[in-house]
Amino acid sequence: MNHPADFADIGEAFARETALAIILADGGGFIRFWNEGAAALFGHSSAEVAGQRVDLIVPSPYRDMHWAGFNRTIGSAWRGHESWGDIEALHKTGAIVPLQVLLTPLTGPDGGVRQVFAMFRRREG
User: Fold this and answer.
1) Using CB atoms within 10 A of its CB, is residue 85 exposed (0-12), middle (13-18) or buried (19+)?
2) How far apart, in whole angstroms, are the C-alpha atoms of residue 106 and residue 46?
3) Phi-psi region of 91 (alpha: psi -120 to 50; beta: other; left: phi over 0)
4) With 90 as the cut, is the pLDDT of residue 88 above it?
5) What is the pLDDT of residue 68?
6) How far is CA 8 from each of CA 3, 4, 25, 124, 125, rounded to the nearest angstrom?
7) What is the CATH number of the domain that holds 116?
8) What is d(CA 125, CA 120) in angstroms, rounded to the nearest whole number?
9) What is the number of other CB atoms lying within 10 angstroms of the CB of residue 68?
10) d(CA 108, CA 85)
11) Domain count of the fold of the chain
């Protein structure tokens, strides 16, 4: 059985994780969690992204499409992706980074999506 302190340990482990970039965006698209893996993959420290929207990593040609999907998701009954999907993201330098993403919704008491938990990894090939 887990003890409440174990959950704090899990959060700290996610924060230190470097094999995966882990990001949590709230219903407004603001970054609420950014781990060391995200800092390494996207080039921004957690201090730099505090209070920023996820536009920071969405290449400008994809932003309209990203926000249309994101806004449809918030409040919906969407249950997330079943597998990793290929995307391109934006590095701090302006370079495009080929990635895979796995998205999982975090829901409220009504079952509607309130936040989106995303894990990213480099795409091979």
Assistant:
1) exposed
2) 21
3) beta
4) yes
5) 96
6) 10, 7, 19, 33, 36
7) 3.30.450.20
8) 16
9) 10
10) 25
11) 1
Handedness of CA 78, 83, 86, 88 (dihedral sign): positive
For the question of whether the overall pTM of this predicted structure is more than 0.90, the answer is no
Looking up tokens 């924060």 gives: 15
CA–CA distance from 38 to each of 88, 100, 115 (Å)? 14, 13, 18
Q: Give strand pairing partners of 125.
A: none
Q: In angstroms, how far apart are the furthest CA atoms of the chain?
A: 47
Domain that holds residue 91: 4-122
pLDDT in tens, 7-60: 667 667 666 767 889 999 999 999 999 999 999 999 999 999 999 999 999 999
